[in-house]
Design brief:
By secondary structure, the chain is mainly alpha-helical. It has one domain. It is built from eight helices and four strands, in the order H-E-E-E-E-H-H-H-H-H-H-H. The strands form two sheets. The chain has a two-stranded antiparallel sheet with strand order 1-4. Strand 2 and strand 3 form a beta hairpin. The longest helix is centred in the last third of the chain and has 38 residues.
Length: 243
Amino acid sequence: MAEANNPLAQFVIQPLIPIKLGELDASFTNSSLFMVLTVVAATTLMVLAVRPRAAVPGRWQLLAELSYEFIAKMVSDNIGKEGKPYFSFIFTIFMFVLFGNFLGMLPYSFTFTSHIAVTLTMALVIFLLVTVIAFVKHGMHFFSFFLPAGVPIFLAPLMIAIEVISYFTRPFSLSIRLFANMMAGHTLLKVVGGFVFPLGLLGIVPVAGLVAITGLEFLIAFLQAYIFTILTCIYINDAINLH
């Protein structure tokens, strides 16, 4: 009972199918399950959208087209024409984070984006991809990224140190922003929801607050997917143009 009232209990990763590979625990967990469900949900949306191919788009087709155009504009505005080869990757990131955030809003679900291990892994993949793109496109000239043009020579050591630290902290800031916002929001929902039944008739007050926070949390779920994706676009643009 105490565990049920613990607002942090919802973040506990539980093995559903135990799998041991020697000393490695590779169990299929509730986090894994909702990652799979996220992929299935996003894929189902796209399949339902393209199958009818109606002249007048239905709700699924309209939703998919809006998502496509939204990300296409994001890529165009932040990367330009050179961003086209990375559209599929960026679109996949947005849909994965967005559906993961939204599925986590369902009762008795699990929000895998509230775990730093998940968000940091995604951020590290993006960081490594961006670094590879930079080296492939610019070679050793990529290191000029750490010394902005026009910096006086006596400030060069300080600026290089700042830029290097800023560059290598990108995956941490990217991952912590998403994980912290999703974890804080869900914790607040659990805390406020815990006041509903103990207060009896007065529970209408926390119910009203719960409804308002839930609406805000859906907005935050979308905004965090947007921020995670647009920062990915900015990092790719930096790798291509060394800005």
